[in-house]
Write a structure and sequence with these properties.
Layout: E1 3-6, E2 10-15, H1 20-28, E3 41-43, E4 47-48, H2 49-57, E5 77-86, E6 92-97, E7 100-101, E8 103-108, E9 111-116, E10 123-126, E11 135-144, H3 146-150, E12 184-185, E13 188-193, E14 196-208, E15 212-223, E16 227-236, E17 243-253, E18 256-267, E19 283-289, E20 294-300, E21 305-311, E22 314-321, E23 324-326, E24 328-333, H4 345-357, E25 362-365, H5 374-383, E26 386-390, H6 402-419, E27 425-429, H7 434-441, H8 444-450, H9 454-467, E28 473-474, E29 499-500, H10 503-506, E30 529-531, H11 540-546, H12 557-561, H13 566-573, H14 582-605, E31 613-616, H15 639-647, E32 651-656, E33 661-666, E34 672-682, E35 686-697, E36 702-706, E37 716-724, E38 727-734, E39 748-753, E40 758-763, E41 767-772, E42 783-785, E43 791-794, E44 806-807, H16 809-814
Parallel strand pairs: 24-25, 24-31, 25-26, 26-27, 27-28, 29-30
Antiparallel strand pairs: 1-13, 2-3, 2-5, 4-12, 5-11, 6-10, 6-13, 7-12, 8-9, 8-11, 14-15, 15-18, 16-17, 16-19, 19-20, 21-22, 22-23, 32-33, 33-36, 34-35, 34-37, 37-38, 39-40, 40-43, 41-42, 41-44
C-alpha cells in the first residue's frame, strides 16, 4: 500500500424524484457541483441525511416527537458530491466506503461506476482508468429511498417491504427503535496501491498442546504481474512484541488473486480466554512481500471453540473454549443510534467496558441491526467479550431467487472474511427468529413443501464451513435441531438448542396472550436463553432531556411515542407500588426489571450446565426510550444493570424458594473454600438466626444446601454471605413483595475519603436500595445496607459537597 487518504470534503443536497434526471444530466456533462441548481451543504462523514440535517438545524431529534420531522425526507434522494486529486495512473486507485446505506449509484466524472444494494458491506470501487483524468476528479453519489425502489423489483411472492434490499431492518421501526429510513455513508478513503497487494490474511488454531500450538495460515495476494518474490511471515508475542516465529520463502505470483496456505507452530502458547476465565492474549502476524514495500498485519488469539449439543445423553447448548465449558453471561447488542447506523469509538469503549464490569462474557449482535465497525470487535477481543454474531436477517420471510442469493453470498462472504480473525467471535448465526416466525405463521403444508428459508440457510452454512472452520454455525436464534426435519417441532423448544423467552413480557404461548409475572422464568427449562427481558423507564436525567415538564406529569401520547406499553409494564410494577408520579414510574419499573433479571439469571445459573447461558434483551438502545435496555441512550445504567452485575458474579450464592435450597455456583476454574453465613433480618432491622457452613466448591461447579424457610416469616429478609479464599460474595432474598414490606425510615450516615475516592455508608436499620447519583460513577450501586454495618464503595468522581448525592427506597417512596 503506497498511499491512503480519507475523503471528508463532502457536500449534499436532498432532492425529490422529479429533479433526479435533470441533475444527473448535468453531472454527466461534467458540470461542477457549485454550478448545479442546488443548495449544497457540508456533509459530515460518517453520516446520514437525517444526522446532517440535525447538525444544520440544531434540532434535538429525540426530544418529544421531533422524529416526526424526518418523515418528509423518507421519499427524497440524497445527492453527495466530492472531489479527489489523482496524480498517478501506474497504480490502482481504490475508493473504499465503510458502508453505503443502501440503494446507491456511484458516478466518476459523470460516469456510472458502481451500484450498491447492501448496507452491510464495505464497498470497494476501483476507479476505471478510462474515466479518470489527471488532477481533480468528481465523485457523485445518488442514494435512493428504499421503499419506492422495492416496487421496481421483480419478486413475484408477497414480501415485507423491509427485506427487499439489504438495509438494517430496525430502520423500518421496531419495538425499541423509531422508524428512521436513513440514507448515508460511512468513512471514505482513497487508496493508491501498487501492482501487488496482500488482500487477505486468516490464521486460526488447529490444536493446542502444553508446549506448543498448531496454527493454520492462509492468505491472498492480488497481483497485476507475474513474478516470484520472497514473502516473510512473522508472528509477534503478546505484550512484549518479541518475534516468536520467522520464516521467509519464495512464492510464485500469477496475474489475479493468488491463494496460499501453510501451518505455523508456536511454542509456549498464551491462550485467549473469555472474561472471568483467564487473560486475553493477542498475537500479531505480519506478512511482508520483500522488495516492494508491501506488508499487512493482523491480531489474532490462540483459542479453540466448540458448541456442545449433547453431553451424557442430555441435550445441551454449551460453549467450550480451550476444552473448558463456559457458562455464557451477557446481553443482546443493538445499534447505538437510530439516525446514524454508526458508533463513535468512545461510546463503543464505554459500553463494552461496562459489559465487562458487569461480569459479562458474551454479547449477541442481533440480526435486525448492523455489522459493527472494526473497533467494536477489537474491544471485545481485548476485554474477553465473546460474540454471538447473527447475520443481518430478522423476523421475516426473505426472497430466495438466484439474484437475491447471489447478493447475499457476496455479503456473507465478505463479513466472514473481514471478521474471522477476531477470537471474540465464537458463533455465526443465520438469522433472528425467522424459522420461529415461520413455524408460528405459515401452515404446516406450506412449510413442508416450500421449505422456506432452506436455500438461505444452506448458503450461509456452506460459506461458514468453507471460509471459517474455526467456529460453529447455528441456523437461527431460536433454533432446535429436531425442527430441521420434523416440521411440527417448535424451533423455540425448551428441550434442545437455544430459546427466546417471550412468555413473560409478550405473553407468547399464554392464554389470550396475557403475560405472567417474572416468576414464570422459573419454570422455563431452556438449555440456553438468548433473549428475555422486561421493560423499564430510563433515569430522570434522561427523561428530562426528551420530555417537557408538562409531558412528565402522567402517561400521555409522548410517552407512547417513546415506546411505553402501559398494560405490559404494569404486570410487574404492582409488586413494588402503584405509580402516580414520573419518579414512581421510574422507581417501580426499574425495580421490577432489576428483580426480574436477578430472578431469571439466578434460577438458570443454578441449573448449570443443563442451562448453559442467558443473554438479556437488551444491553443498549438506539434512542432514549422506555424499553428493555440495561443502559440507556445517554450511557446511564438502570437499576437492572447493577442487579445483573451481581447475578453474573463469578461466584454466586442464591436462594431457590420453590426447591427450598441455597445454591452456590463457581464459574472460575479454581476450587474455592470458605464459610457461608446465613442470616435473617426481621424488619426494620433486627438480625437473627445466624448459621455458618464451611464449604468447598470445585472449579466450574455448583453445590446445593437444603434450607427450608418458614412461610409465617414472609416479611423477613434472608441474607447470604460467602467469605472465600478468593473474596466475599453476598446476596439477599425477599420472602414478600417490596410493596408489602415495612422497611422503616433509615438514618444513613456516610464518610468520604478523598485520598482513596471511597464513600463509606452506615445505617441504623436494614436500608433497601441505596442509589448513588451516576455522576459520581460508582463501582457499585443500588445496594442494601445491613443494620449498623459499614459498606464502602469506590467512585470515580467525589461529590462536590455534602448535598444529597444518594437516595434510598424509603426516600423515593416518600418523594
Amino acid at each position: 500500500m503506497l498511499n491512503r487518504t480519507v475523503i471528508s470534503n463532502w457536500l449534499f443536497s436532498p432532492i425529490d424524484r422529479t429533479q433526479k434526471e435533470s441533475i444527473l444530466n448535468l453531472i454527466t456533462k461534467n458540470i461542477t457541483p457549485s454550478s448545479l441548481p442546488l443548495k449544497l451543504l457540508k456533509f459530515t462523514v460518517p453520516g446520514t441525511l437525517q444526522s446532517n440535517i440535525v447538525r444544520h438545524m440544531g434540532l434535538d431529534p429525540y426530544y418529544e416527537k421531533n422524529m416526526e420531522n424526518f418523515k418528509k425526507y423518507e421519499e427524497m434522494i440524497l445527492v453527495l458530491f466530492t472531489e479527489v486529486n489523482i496524480e498517478y495512473f501506474d497504480e490502482r486507485n481504490i475508493l473504499t466506503f465503510d458502508y453505503i446505506d443502501t440503494v446507491c449509484d456511484v458516478y466518476l466524472n459523470g460516469n456510472l461506476i458502481k451500484q450498491t444494494r447492501s448496507a452491510h458491506m464495505v464497498i470497494k470501487v476501483e476507479l476505471p482508468l478510462e474515466y479518470l483524468k489527471k488532477g481533480i476528479n468528481s465523485i457523485s453519489l445518488f442514494i435512493y429511498p428504499p421503499l419506492p425502489e422495492t416496487k421496481k423489483t421483480d419478486y413475484t411472492q408477497k414480501l415485507d417491504e423491509r427485506v427487499i434490499f439489504r438495509k438494517p431492518t430496525y430502520n423500518y421501526g421496531w419495538d425499541f427503535a423509531p422508524r428512521s429510513l436513513t440514507k448515508g455513508i460511512g468513512k471514505v478513503t482513497l487508496t493508491r496501491t501498487g501492482l501487488i497487494e496482500i488482500s487477505d490474511i486468516f490464521i486460526y488454531t488447529l490444536e493446542i498442546q502444553k508446549e506448543n500450538c498448531l496454527q493454520f495460515l492462509e492468505w491472498e495476494i492480488h497481483s497485476e504481474v507475474e513474478d516470484e518474490l520472497p514473502i516473510t511471515i512473522q508472528v509477534f508475542e503478546p505484550e512484549d512484541n518479541k518475534i516468536c516465529y520467522n520464516d521467509q520463502s519464495l512464492y510464485a505470483l500469477t496475474k489475479g488473486v493468488n491463494k496460499y496456505q501453510t501451518k505455523v507452530v508456536l511454542n509456549d502458547p498464551r491462550l485467549w480466554w473469555p472474561n472471568g476465565c483467564g487473560a486475553q492474549h493477542l498475537y500479531k502476524i505480519k506478512l511482508t512481500v520483500e522488495g516492494i514495500n508491501e506488508s499487512k498485519e493482523r491480531l489474532f488469539g490462540i483459542r479453540l471453540v466448540k458448541l456442545i449439543l449433547n453431553h451424557e445423553l442430555e441435550n445441551r447448548f454449551t460453549f467450550e473454549i480451550n476444552s473448558e465449558m463456559i457458562y455464557a453471561k451477557g446481553a443482546n447488542w443493538v445499534p447505538t443510534d437510530a439516525l446514524l447506523n454508526y458508533c463513535e469509538d468512545e461510546k463503543y469503549s464505554n459500553l463494552i467496558q461496562m459489559a465487562k464490569k458487569a461480569n459479562f462474557n458474551m454479547l449477541r449482535i442481533w440480526g435486525g441491526g448492523v455489522v459493527e465497525r472494526e473497533k467494536f470487535y477489537e474491544l471485545c477481543d481485548s476485554l474477553g467479550i465473546m460474540i454471538w454474531h447473527d447475520f443481518q436477517f430478522a423476523c421475516s420471510i426473505y426472497p430466495e431467487t438466484d439474484k437475491f442469493l447471489t447478493q447475499v453470498e457476496a455479503e456473507v462472504q465478505q463479513i466472514i472474511k473481514r471478521l474471522r480473525n477476531h477470537p471474540s467471535i465464537v458463533l455465526w448465526c443465520g438469522n433472528n427468529e425467522n424459522e420461529w416466525i415461520d413455524f408460528q405463521k405459515i401452515p404446516l403444508k406450506d412449510r413442508k413443501e416450500k421449505k422456506i428459508g432452506e436455500k438461505l440457510h444452506l448458503l450461509k452454512k456452506r460459506l461458514c464451513s468453507n471460509l471459517d472452520p474455526s467456529r460453529p454455525y447455528w441456523r437461527s436464534s431460536p433454533w432446535s435441531p429436531s425442527a430441521e426435519n420434523e416440521y411440527t417441532f417448535d424451533p423455540n423448544s425448551q428441550e434442545e438448542g437455544n430459546s427466546h423467552n417471550w412468555e413473560v413480557w409478550h405473553g407468547v404461548n399464554q392464554p389470550n396472550l396475557e403475560p405472567p409475572t417474572y416468576e414464570q422464568y422459573g419454570i422455563f427449562k431452556s438449555r440456553f436463553v438468548s433473549e428475555f427481558g422486561i421493560q423499564s423507564f430510563p433515569s430522570k436525567s434522561t427523561l428530562s432531556k426528551i420530555l417537557s415538564k408538562t409531558s412528565q406529569s402522567q402517561p400521555n401520547d409522548i410517552w407512547k411515542f417513546h415506546n411505553l406499553v402501559l398494560d405490559k409494564i404494569n404486570v410487574n410494577i404492582s409488586k413494588f407500588g402503584k405509580p402516580e408520579t414520573i419518579n414512581e414510574w421510574i422507581l417501580y419499573s426499574q425495580t421490577a426489571q432489576a428483580f426480574a433479571m436477578k430472578f431469571a439469571i439466578e434460577i438458570w445459573r443454578s441449573r448449570k450446565f443443563k442451562n448453559s447461558g442467558s443473554l438479556i434483551w437488551q444491553f443498549n438502545e438506539p434512542w432514549p426510550t422506555i424499553c428493555w435496555s440495561l443502559i440507556d441512550y445517554y450511557g446511564v445504567p438502570k437499576m437492572a444493570y447493577w442487579y445483573t452485575k451481581n447475578a453474573y458474579s463469578p461466584v454466586l450464592v442464591s436462594y431457590n424458594k420453590n426447591e427450598q435450597k441455597i445454591i452456590l455456583i463457581n464459574d472460575t476454574f479454581t476450587k474455592i473454600s470458605g464459610v457461608l453465613k446465613i442470616s435473617t433480618i426481621k424488619l426494620p432491622g433486627r438480625m437473627t438466626q445466624n448459621m455458618n457452613y464451611e464449604l468447598s466448591i470445585k472449579g466450574n461447579g455448583t453445590i446445593q444446601l437444603e434450607y427450608p424457610l418458614n412461610e409465617q416469616n414472609k416479611d423477613d429478609i434472608v441474607i447470604m454471605d460467602f467469605k472465600s479464599n478468593i473474596g466475599s460474595f453476598n446476596n439477599f432474598f425477599l420472602l414478600n413483595d417490596p410493596v408489602n414490606l415495612k422497611f422503616g425510615k433509615p438514618k444513613v450516615k456516610f464518610d468520604i475519603n478523598a485520598d482513596e475516592n471511597t464513600i463509606t455508608f452506615i445505617s441504623n436499620v436494614f436500608t433497601f436500595l441505596v442509589t448513588i447519583s451516576w455522576e459520581l460513577r460508582p463501582q457499585d450501586n443500588c445496594f442494601n445496607l445491613l443494620p449498623n454495618e459499614t459498606y464502602s464503595i469506590k467512585v470515580e468522581n467525589l461529590p462536590e459537597d455534602d448535598s444529597k448525592f444518594f437516595s434510598t427506597w424509603a426516600d423515593n417512596r416518600m418523594s
